[in-house]
Amino acid sequence: MDKEDIKKRFGQKVKTLRIARGMSQDELAQRLGYTNRSSINKIELGKNDLPRNKVAQLAAILGVEPIEFFKDDEAVPDVVPDVVQDDIIVEIEKLSGSNRARLEAYLRALLDSQEDE
Fold this sequence. Notes:
The chain is mainly alpha-helical. The protein has helices at 3-20, 25-32, 38-44, 55-62, 82-94, 97-116.
């Protein structure tokens, strides 16, 4: 599987999860810090990559583990209940820019260490 195929599969999974959550491209874009939906549209079409530092944030917004974006199965995974997901997002949004960066670095480290297990 080449990079283009990976981008398309990733984008399809994002779209499937977004729709399953009843979320618009505009809403997802806003929650990820984009100014409009075109970035989400391009990601879903497999035209653009999502920056690595936003994968964990996207997963949290959609209520899944980041690995779900890269699985080969087509099934939509169970999602985290809305109340828990929304509470987490609200708390993350309260963080300062430097603390968000620390949280993202910590999440990346956790994910990297999980790959070694």
